[in-house]
UniProtKB/TrEMBL annotation:
The keyword Ribosomal protein does not apply. GO terms for cellular component: cytosol. Its cofactor is Mg(2+). This is NUDIX domain-containing protein.
Length: 174
């Protein structure tokens, strides 16, 4: 049994505190006391596919759990009242200090992200991006470093998350 699943972790109604907060067949929870209905919908996240002049892909190294030390794409969760595009620009600036000049939607995949012992289901959206330049780029926020990788040098077993692996594979195969 996966102890990070919402129906295992969520035990009490967030409105009234009742223990009668029961999982439903539609991936929601409903309180038997106050009738509060809560859905565990997918959270949106963004990822940037950025290449340099040598056609190498920029990958970051995760500086925090989950998967600390594994390769990832720059990006992160879309915040409340933020568009995916705004999140993309913000995340790349926060993590690397880079300014995105142009971007285009590429592909999306579902993913599962376990944080604090709780499984969050995500929809990860990838964008192909160009940046103004790589001057002053540095690892910040929740990444420890970065690397540029050629298609033939990618070790997919070192990439965090199945959605990110698929995005990198799709990018190099497009």
């Amino acid at each position: 049994m996966d102890r990070t699943e919402p129906n295992i972790v969520i035990r009490y109604c967030p409105r009234c505190g009742s223990p009668h907060f029961l999982p439903q067949k539609d991936h929601s929870f409903k309180c038997g006391s106050c009738e509060f209905h809560f859905f565990t919908n997918s959270a949106a996240a963004v990822a940037a596919l950025i290449i340099n002049e040598k056609k190498e892909l920029l990958l970051t190294v995760r500086g925090i759990e989950p998967d600390k030390g594994m390769l990832d794409l720059p990006g992160g969760f879309v915040e409340r009242n933020e568009s995916a595009e705004e999140a993309l620009i913000r995340e790349v600036r926060e993590e690397l200090g880079l300014e995105i000049e142009d971007y285009r939607y590429f592909v999306s995949y579902p993913n599962e992200y376990v944080f604090s012992g709780f499984k969050v289901y995500t929809t990860d959206l990838a964008f192909i991006c160009t940046v103004r330049d790589f001057q002053g780029m540095k690892a910040q926020d929740d990444i420890s470093s970065f690397v540029f990788i050629k298609k033939e040098d990618v070790d997919y077993s070192k990439i965090s998350g199945k959605s990110i692996r698929r995005m990198v594979q799709d990018f190099f195969n497009s």
